[in-house]
Amino acid sequence: MLEMTGTAEETGEVFETTSEEAAREHGIHSEERTYGPRLVIVGDGFVLRGLDSRLPGTPFDEEKEIEVPAGEAFGERNPANVQTIPYRVLRSKGVNPAVGAELEIDGRPAVVRSVGAGRVQVDYNHPLAGRKILYKVKVTEHITDDKKKYEALIGRRFLGIEAGEFEVKKTKKKLRVGVPEKIFFGENIQIAKRGVALDILKYFPDLDEVEYYETVKRS
Fold it and tell me: How far apart are the C-alpha atoms of 202 and 67, rounded to whole Å?
C-alpha cells in the first residue's frame, strides 16, 4: 500500500494525492473518492508508468521523493495537438468555449487556449504534458494476507466506500463477495463488480469464480 502525492515541478501544482488533508489544502478534494494508502502492484500499471518503474527498492515506511521526466509521465508537448477550430463548429456541438475551459470535443479532452475572430484555439495535450513530475511516496504496508488482498482489490474499484464493508468468503475455488446494501443501486456498480472479479481471477489462479450476493436485513 502506497501513500503518494504528485506535483508538477515547474509550477508546484499538486494534481493527485492519497492524503485527504493535502487534497483539501490544494483544492483538489473530492467527496466521491476514498483517501488513504493506494493499492499498487508494481509493474501492472496501477500508477503512472514512470513512477511504477522507479518503485522497486523503495524502503518500507520511509518517505522518498521520486522524479519522473516528462516523457515517462504525461508525455512531451506535441505542437500538432494544438489546433484551431471555427467557433461556429463548437457552438453547433453545444460547446460554449471560454479561455481556460476544459472541454471534451469528439471524445477527446482539450483546453481552450484562445478565442477570437470566429476561431478557437484548443490544446489536446495533457495539461501536464512536457512537465517533470515529482512524487513523494511512502510504502505503508506489504500485503501478505489473502483476505486483505481481496479487500484491497475491491477498494480499488469501489470508490467512496470502505472495502471492509464488503463481506468476503472463500469456498474452495469460489470467492463470494457480499455487497453492502447502501450501494445496491449505485452508479456504475456493475462495471465495478466486473472489474473486481477480473482482477481477483487474474491475481488468484486458485480461484475459478467470483460470486456477488446481496442481503437485505430487517430494519
Answer: 31
